[in-house]
Amino acid sequence: MILLDQVSVRYRRSEPLVLRNVDLTVGEGELAVVAGPTGTGKSTLLGCVAGLVPHFTGGVVHGRVVVGGRDTRTHRPGDLADLIGYVGQDPAAGFVTDTVEDEVAYGLECLGTAQPVMRRRVEDALDLLSLAALRSRRLRGLSGGERQRVAIAAVLATGSRVLVLDEPTSALDPGGAEDVLAAVHRLVHDLGVTVLMTEHRLERALQFADQLVLVEDGRVLAGEPSLLMEVSAVRPPVVELARLAGWSPPPVTVRDARRRADRLRHDLAAAPPSSPREPAPGPPPAPGRVRIRGLTVRRGRRQVLHDADLDIPAGVVVALMGRNGAGKSTLLSASAGLVAREGGVVDVDGADPADLPAQQAIRLVGLVPDDPRLLLRASSVADECVGADDDTGVTPGATRRMLARIAPGLAGAHRVNHHPDDLSEGERLTLAMAVILTAGPSLLLLDEPTRGLDYAAKSRLSAMLRSFAASGLAVVVATHDVEFVADVADRVVTMAGGRIVAEGPAADVLLSSYVHTPQVAKVLRPHRWLTVGAVASAMKGEG
Ligand SMILES: Nc1ncnc2c1ncn2[C@@H]1O[C@H](COP(=O)(O)OP(=O)(O)OP(=O)(O)O)[C@@H](O)[C@H]1O
Ligand SMILES: Nc1ncnc2c1ncn2[C@@H]1O[C@H](COP(=O)(O)OP(=O)(O)OP(=O)(O)O)[C@@H](O)[C@H]1O
Q: Which range marks the domain in which residue 40 is found?
């Protein structure tokens, strides 16, 4: 159904090929998961299949891409709409209507679908993505995860024979992500739909994959997931655990890993007493540097944040978790003084950012939004740094120096002449963090920072946030990424329906949950281990 024959792609003449001589075949009714380090050409591969590269992106493509018998270089994306459904990394960018229901119906209308069929398909798609209750809502007022669910519902509704999904679950809560993957899996099995899908969080996608497509440095290696995991540079925790324990070929599901884990469980139980049988509960809360009291926010007629109280100690990393639409982003932006509050106060080092002019507020609280592009306005990284110097009133060159300081530990080289839109997710996050950190805030807030990051980048981000916390910053990360929380967080605050409903040490929260449990904890239950790193230290007797 999908055929790539010796495909090479170059965006700029001065830069190396993004894809090199790629051959790939995905059969009808197969689900292929595309994975690889960040910025190595995964979206470009999907863009070729969906016909976006080069028609929308520019660049030069050599070789042949044929989908359902149509060559995507001679057929423009519009000519492929009846065959291919595509959801990009920024779902909102593709929205053309105003409300959830209209958006889900739009693709069907364009294809001239008969009314009765259209109604049934729209209802099915709304049900599959749990969107029925949001059907009349305006798209502009949806949370990040809600928007992603609408974009997926819209392509599922069209009944395309080929789905091309670029990180379709990146903004979804763990339960929602499982539902979407199960729905896609059902379309593959029951209707013979062909799916090509990128996913950084292999811990949830690998079990559904017929084929794994590894993209590294523009080259592609495709095959059976478990076999490829032996050579892959990106590995979910369960595969890392397998390497540590010497299981070959590595299991790719928790169930298979549990079957082989008796010996490891036994060894860990007998580990020297100095080993951390229990993950450290995290430092006890120090006197609060940040106090939030009674924070309440209304959007339109709906109260979306109710009376939130929270103390955020300096020196710890707090993870903010909860379903899509629970109010996490609202709590962060209200804390930073960026949305109007109906009530409540925030005290950061004795001041409330909402009472201060923007230039002073960002010296107290820095918020890295879930889409760092919202923060970036210039046409090159270098200009962005100059603009940020002006906005924050710091000495000229300070943002550029901050970028040079943090880039090596996060995304590697920073390409100062690039447009921020052409950076990889990791590079864009690094730039946004440099802009925010240059102002020297006491409270650092990050909204879904791991979207688009590979495992290595996440681990570097985690180390960086922990070092910021160690130097006295209060750090809050809103995230759905359970493995990241296991690595980075001391405490977890859980939100539901606009309220803070629970708070506690990260280990307790993660180990007592069914949906927020890291893979290692699932494999080694009843022992209390959260990360491969902790298991490795115990096996080495480091304690
Ligand atoms: N339209 C474009 N113009 C110029 N360069 C681009 C364009 N799109 C992508 N690139 C560059 O091509 C390379 C591969 O990007 P691509 O988005 O395909 O990687 P990726 O593996 O999907 O990354 P991520 O995991 O961050 O989504 C990157 O270096 C990126 O900066
Ligand atoms: N401008 C707006 N107008 C109306 N409702 C809004 C607006 N912005 C957000 N909401 C609603 O407020 C609620 C909380 O949204 P918020 O973005 O804070 O959730 P979240 O927990 O960050 O979700 P996600 O995990 O999906 O990012 C959601 O129901 C959302 O639909």
A: 2-227
| Domains identified in the chain, total number | 2
Q: Are 301 and 388 part of one and the same domain? A: yes
| Ligand sitting nearest the alpha carbon of 174 | 2
Residue nearest to atom 4 of ligand 2 (CA): 141
Q: Is 145 in the pocket of ligand 2 (CB under 6 A)?
A: yes
Residue 87, beta-bridge partner list = 165
User: What's 190's domain CATH number?
Assistant: 3.40.50.300
Do both 169 and 295 map to the same domain?
A: no
Of the residues 40, 48, 454, which should be mutated to test ligand 1's pocket, given the most ligand atoms within 8 Å of the CB?
Answer: 40
* ipTM of the complex, rounded to two decimals: 0.91
pLDDT in tens, 190-244: 889 999 999 999 998 999 999 999 999 899 999 999 899 988 999 999 999 999 9
Predicted local confidence at residue 288, as pLDDT: 53
Is beta strand 343-348 parallel, antiparallel or unpaired with respect to 288-299? Answer: antiparallel
pTM comes to 0.90
Instruction: Pull the structure tokens for residue 385.
Output: 């740094």
What would you report as the CA-atom Rg of the chain, rounded to the nearest whole angstrom? 23
Beta bridge partners of 4: 24, 65
Give pLDDT tens digits for 519-543.
999 999 888 889 999 898 888 775 4
